[in-house]
Amino acid sequence: MIKSKKDLNFYLQEDAIRAGMPTRYTISGYIQYIIKLAIGDEQAHVLKYLHTLRHLEYWTNTSTNIIHELVRKYWNVRHSRMGHRYGIHIGANMVGYGIKIAHFSGGVIINCRKMGNYCTVSTGVVIGNKDIPEARPTIEDHVELAMGSKIYGDIHIGKNVRIAPNTVVYKNISDNVAVGGNPAKIIKTYPIAQ
Fold first, then answer.
1. CA distance 64 to 148
2. Using CA of residue 96, residue 118, residue 141, residue 194, what is the dihedral sign?
3. 34 φ/ψ angles, rounded to the nearest 5 degrees
4. 194 & 108 share domain
5. pTM of the entire structure?
6. CATH number of the domain enclosing 122
7. Of the ranges 130-134, 159-163, 176-180, which one carries the lowest mean pLDDT score?
8. Which of 43, 101, 112, 160 is the right S-S partner for 19, CB 3.0 to 4.6 Å?
9. Radius of gyration in angstroms for the set of CA atoms belonging to the chain, rounded to a whole number
10. How many distinct structural domains can be found in the chain?
């Protein structure tokens, strides 16, 4: 969770690294980023969206007075508009640092309790609740969600999980496995990472 400027800069840097972008805090890195935005590089546009998300999270978590609240509302409007423009909808404080959104043209909706660090999300992924708003998934670190994956309900997805394209997950998934199908079934087990 972003609670300081140091946290904000760390999250922004990790997101940029996962997007394969240079850091925006150097002149050459910023120029490269602007050029990639101008030529329509998909990862540059994803990073632009994540930039607004991270600032919204920072101001949501640190608002202490009316000025901060106005700045938070500004970032909330920017985040909402960018989400509509790119077809990405991620709530504040839901995803950890280093998230990679591989493609977004088919839409990405993430409405979970928490998604860990260094996760990868592809186009058409929908994560949401079932029946009641509180019944949302919890997803651990290093999870890969392939195109068209659907995850819903009050479930837990373990670490180092790979979810195959068009998989529907509505039950808990243990660590270090690959799942596929509708409903999701374990198709491969990975050795435990050291």
1. 40
2. negative
3. -65, -40
4. yes
5. 0.88
6. 2.160.10.10
7. 130-134
8. 43
9. 17
10. 2
Band (pLDDT 50/70/90 cuts) for residue 73 is very high
In a domain? residue 95: no
Is the Cβ–Cβ distance between 37 and 47 less than 8 Å?
no
Contacts 24+ apart (CB under 8 A), 133-136: 136/111, 136/112
Nearest to residue 174, comparing CAs of 126, 140, 144, 127? 140
Residue 146 is predicted with a pLDDT of 94
The answer to whether residue 96 is domain-embedded is no
Helix (H) or strand (E) holding 168: strand 168-169
Average pLDDT over the chain reads 90
Closest CA to 177 of 193, 160, 152: 160
In a shared domain, residues 69 and 120: no
| Residues 15 and 43 occupy one common structural domain | yes
